[in-house]
# Entry
Amino acid sequence: MRRILFLAGAVVLLLMLPSTVQRALTVSHSHSELLAKRIYAYRDWQSTGVRINQGDLVAIEAHGEWLYTPGEYHGPKGHPVFPAPSFYPISDGSGGALIGRIGEKGPRFVVGAGLNTQAREHGILYLRINDDILSDNDGWVAVHIDVTETEDSLP
# Structure
């Protein structure tokens, strides 16, 4: 009888093992994979839903193409020749580049195809295309965001 109970217990453990392993694998996805997001060229500031604390290390990678100049698709670096005019959200970057800000009123910065920085502000990360008229744009870029807390991070 003991032998049967032991064998039954072993069978139950073996049956539970695949779901336990699968659950462990699901939890082990990297932070950046879980935070992949599309940023559309025809929308204004878009919340990534990622909260950043002052002092966090923030890494952003962007891939894809969007229509910024009529008839020309460009990547997240923006137009390779024309700089952004003074009336764009950021005038010291390329027109059509991926730009960001942390918080509703945070300073704007160029992301382009990628950025590694330590946050000086706290809040939600917002991204958009560096353009003044969004209604004639098309397409999107995919962004992967990785946030790492440091000893300097403040809540």
